[in-house]
Design a protein that fits this description.
Length: about 350
């Protein structure tokens, strides 16, 4: 069913529809005509309000669950409300400070992204999501530092100054000279390349230069690039924080829906694909319930917005996932602010 435009609703229908939606989003419970009449916002009898609710239900904007006397918005109704009637509330100074306080890049960027997403999760009472920037480390320098007779610390420095460490096992009898030779060879041969490019070049270079290299150094070179490449390939595309916040008092009454939602989060690739579709958006995208087949069972909503690097290119997407009854007016600006914060962090 195609939803009517907001302008097609009478003033009375629009006001009652807004009251039902806002009441439902606030409590998670269907809203009855008696509740609206007793609130004193309308100079109408419960019967008159009930008639308007029935009209809105016939338009596909409200539903009448089970035997309840109240109404709640359908996914179509929520879309109409979000797109045409919602009055947003900007994050408070305290909320802004909580988000900005976690966006500190003192280590790997993924750690700062995860911390910021955790702050967003706590403030929104949803699970926080961030799609890790799809940028590859460009190598500048590589070295091997001995730790013990059988182990060394492989240190890689990126072109942006980022430093990563990995522990590698050493073949028996590997000398300090072999560690130095391996580091010098890799720095000279691989500087300016991504890990994928470095792996391809090493395959060719080692075949030609193996005779000129110490055997231990050659083995260490192969092992070092393999460790980093494997780690990079396994790096999660999606970071999720705050899943436990999805299980609140209202959710406890619908455990099957919560179970379906947590199952959705287990399928990270599907969620990542949904977030990735928001990369081209100029503003925040909102996916409501069964509008997306991924949430047909769990009845969930996702609010997502891309964030950009210093050159203006989109490098990732941040957002939240929660029940369709989440507080869109409060959470949408919060996601917007988090995206702007991450853009400053990445830039």
């Amino acid at each position: 069913m195609t939803a009517p435009a907001v302008t097609e609703l009478s003033d009375r229908a629009r006001d009652i529809f807004r009251a039902v939606v806002e009441g439902y989003l606030d409590t998670g419970q269907p809203v009855g005509s008696r509740t609206l009449a007793d609130a004193g916002a309308f100079s109408l009898s419960p019967a008159s309000i009930r008639n308007v609710m029935a009209e809105l239900e016939a338009l596909g904007l409200l539903s009448h669950p089970h035997t309840s006397a109240g109404r709640m918005p359908t996914d179509t109704g929520l879309r109409l409300f979000v797109d045409g009637m919602m009055r947003v509330a900007e994050p408070s100074l305290e909320e802004r400070a909580a988000i900005e306080g976690r966006a500190v890049r003192s280590g790997p960027v993924e750690e700062a992204l995860a911390a910021t997403t955790a702050a967003l999760s706590g403030l929104s009472a949803c699970a926080g999501l961030v799609l890790v920037p799809r940028s590859e480390l460009v190598l500048r320098q590589i070295s091997f530092v001995p730790l013990s007779p059988g182990r060394a610390l492989a240190v890689i420095v990126g072109d942006d100054g980022q430093v990563e460490n990995r522990v590698v096992d050493l073949a028996p009898g590997t000398s300090q000279a072999a560690l130095v030779e391996a580091g010098n060879y890799m720095s000279a041969t691989l500087a300016g390349l991504t890990l994928a490019e470095a792996r391809a070049r090493l395959d060719r270079q080692l075949a030609a230069d193996r005779a000129a290299l110490d055997q231990a150094a050659a083995t260490l070179i192969e092992q070092g690039i393999a460790v980093w490449s494997e780690d990079s390939d396994r790096r999660p595309v999606l970071i999720v924080r705050g899943q436990g916040r999805l299980i609140d008092a209202a959710a406890a009454e619908d455990l099957e829906r919560v179970r379906d939602l947590l199952d959705d989060l287990e399928g990270k690739q599907e969620i990542a694909g949904l977030l990735d579709s928001a990369r081209t958006a100029e503003s925040t995208r909102i996916f409501i319930g069964a509008e997306n087949k991924l949430f047909a069972l769990s009845g969930s909503s996702v609010i997502a917005r891309p964030f950009r690097g210093i050159d203006g290119r989109v490098v990732g997407v941040v957002g939240v996932i929660g029940p369709t009854r989440l507080n869109y007016a409060r959470v949408v600006p919060m996601v917007d602010f988090t995206a702007a914060t991450l853009s400053r962090l990445i830039g």
